[in-house]
Amino acid sequence: MAQVTVVGSGVMGKGIAYAFATSGSKVVLNDLNEEILEKAADDITGLMEKSHQKGFLSKDELEIAQSNLQLEPEISKAARNADLVVEAVLEKIDLKISIFQQLDEICGPDTILATNTSTMSPTEIGAQTSRPDKVIAMHFFNPVHKMKLIEVIRGLETSDETVNKIMDISRQIGKEPVEIHEFPGFVTSRMNCLIGNEAMNMLMEGVASAEDIDKAMKLGLNHPMGPLELADLVGLDTRLRNMEYLHETLGEKYRPCPLLTKYVKAGKLGRKSGQGFYDYSEGRVAHGV
């Protein structure tokens, strides 16, 4: 891909921009909030420098990667010449559809439009454009620079050509793609949400502390991160939106744990707010029951 535009400069947008910029593509990072956009650029270049210090990027590769990254707050300018656009905004279907409708008008007819969603329907999003055959989901994982998997989700009208291109692109940026036919939650989100929700229910019921629930999953089932730690990393507001969507589309077993709803209402959103199931300011477990 000669140019990749990433819409949204949050945690996932930053990681996706890093992955493409360090793999040789020109990357235009877009966000309406210029202050957030500048902070994202600082974070990305800082990560590039750390990668150089650790030997993952040579000095020449570092300089090329840094020069590959551009910032643009106006989506019309950011996406005008893109070969691929990856949207990485909040998990709100109306917001995503609005962005894709704009991109459909802005981009050339051959541009592929991808959504980095963990649950939403690329079929529904693509149907609101004039190019449903070129709309697809690329579900990256956090932190993007470490996680190898990309779920490539085919919508009802996504063409084989589009799927094959995205599978190839995923490998070119050092990831391992898996092809999935669209169904709510795909593969990983359905499993993660169930495990995480049950962990929250156990915490609410007083079965064990957050630390011990996570330790049991890590040491007993060889998970690299406990389900409550993972929920804090993802963001409890994001996890709640995912659970609400899965509850609506897949039924009662995905009903969000009341403790999750209570934490989000209290502003305890995980790492990004300083407190979730763990207190990151002091390292204490936040039981909240």
Automatic annotation (TrEMBL):
It holds the Pfam family 3HCDH. Coiled coil: none annotated. Residues 3-182 form the 3-hydroxyacyl-CoA dehydrogenase NAD binding domain. Keywords: Oxidoreductase. Residues 185-280 form the 3-hydroxyacyl-CoA dehydrogenase C-terminal domain. It comes from the Bacteria. Pathway: Lipid metabolism; butanoate metabolism. Belongs to the 3-hydroxyacyl-CoA dehydrogenase family. This is 3-hydroxyacyl-CoA dehydrogenase. It comes from Virgibacillus xinjiangensis. The lineage of its organism: Bacteria, Bacillati, Bacillota, Bacilli, Bacillales.
